[in-house]
Design goal:
Elements (H helix, E strand, L loop, with lengths): L21 E5 L8 E5 L4 E5 L7 E5 L5 E5 L5 E4 L6 E4 L10 E5 L8 H4 L8 E6 L4 E6 L7 E4 L4 E2 L7 E2 L5 E4 L2 E7 L2 E6 L10 E6 L12 E10 L2 E10 L6 E10 L4 E5 L5 E5 L5 E5 H4 L5 E4 L9 E6 L5 E5 L1 E2 L1
Parallel strand pairs: 3-27, 22-24
Antiparallel strand pairs: 1-2, 2-3, 4-5, 5-6, 6-7, 8-9, 9-10, 10-11, 12-13, 14-15, 15-16, 16-17, 18-19, 19-20, 20-21, 22-23, 24-25, 25-26
Protein name: KIB1-4 beta-propeller domain-containing protein
InterPro entries: Gal_Oxase/kelch_b-propeller (IPR011043), KIB1-4_b-propeller (IPR005174)
Organism: Dichanthelium oligosanthes
């Protein structure tokens, strides 16, 4: 990925609102303490100095909020970069894991009974999950007094010729108060936290649901999967590659979880929504009309090979695709 020269300091990232939505590629680990973002709306790559983010470890969320942790005091807060609003959270007792992601739960409606047994869920939670080991950090957003660290058992990941390793969630989505993740092939895991728990404690439930596949004559198909919330439903976007080189995309499909049938149902019409897929399994949905995007499309930008600025746009209904390069500005 190429980097542009950082722009002048911004009073707030809200000054860049014309470029929203943004996919964050770098959170300030560069020597100049800047942030590199991709603008999905205009196909540009920009590097900013954002004073509000200096000296903080920052994790973006699909909800548009940013978890900020002071690198010295470990004091935490949630920040809305578009409004400038900041919500204080308890300080952490140690630094965030080197590789992790963050989610904020939405408990505005009832989750499926199979996962929660009809029990009332608590106010919203913020969750940090380690991408390299099965460990979670949880905190109540309102009234939280401390971060709770919790491990979980997702089984073992086995590679021929190597010692088995513990499975860790690589992709999660928060839907109606429940955190969903890929637990194992054909198995969806769901973490629930109930209102009567004195401290946040996630209970693990599982759901057997066959993984989406495609019909192809290719000798090998590799699937890259993303989970996300859209209109209070759980979606899965699968990008099917020919071979292990991740250079040729054979097909892209969007699937909605039908909890009654316990299966992924392929969909081609997601209305006005657009799906945004970024690095480290980041996935979110947004209004296409509000942000000047193509409705019913999947925007995919992931530089996991480390040598391109490519992005792809897949129209789910028409089955068409576009691709280009982010322009450095």
């Amino acid at each position: 990925m190429e980097y542009s020269k950082p722009t002048d300091d911004l009073g707030s990232l809200a000054a860049a609102a014309a470029s929203f939505p943004l996919l964050v590629y770098d959170h300030g680990e560069q020597p100049d303490n800047s942030q590199t973002v991709l603008s999905v709306a205009d196909g540009s790559l920009r590097t900013y100095h954002v004073p509000e983010m200096r000296n903080f470890r920052c994790l973006e969320t699909p909800q548009g909020l940013v978890l900020m942790v002071d690198t010295s005091s470990l004091q935490a807060r949630l920040w809305n970069p578009q409004t400038g609003e900041k919500m204080p959270l308890p300080a952490m007792d140690e630094e965030l894991p080197p590789y992790c992601r963050c989610l904020v739960s939405d408990t505005s409606s009832s989750p499926p009974d199979w996962a929660s047994d009809g029990v009332e869920l608590p106010d919203s939670l913020v969750l940090v999950y380690d991408l390299t080991r099965p460990e979670l950090l949880i905190c109540r957003i309102r009234g939280g007094t401390a971060w709770v660290r919790q491990s979980y058992d997702a089984g073992l990941y086995e590679v021929p010729g190597k010692a088995p390793t513990e499975r860790a969630a690589r992709c999660m989505a928060a839907v109606q108060g429940i955190f969903y993740f890929h637990k194992a092939p054909g198995v969806v895991g769901a973490f629930c936290c109930f209102a009567d728990d004195p401290e946040p404690c996630l209970k693990l439930a599982t759901l057997d649901a066959p993984d989406p596949t495609i019909v192809s004559d290719a000798p090998q198909i590799v699937t890259l999967s993303y989970l996300l919330e859209c209109s209070k439903d759980l979606f899965r976007v699968c990008i099917f590659f020919l071979g292990c080189s991740f250079e040729r995309i054979e097909e892209v499909g969007a699937y909605m979880m039908d909890f009654t049938k316990k299966e992924w149902i392929k969909v081609t019409d997601i209305g006005d929504r657009a799906f945004l897929l970024g690095p480290s399994s980041f996935a979110a949905s947004c209004s296409a009309a509000e942000h000047g995007l193509k409705k019913g499309s999947v925007y995919f930008a992931n530089d996991f090979l480390g040598h391109s600025n490519e992005f792809h746009i897949f129209d789910l209904k028409e089955g068409t695709r576009e691709h280009g390069n982010f322009q450095v500005q």
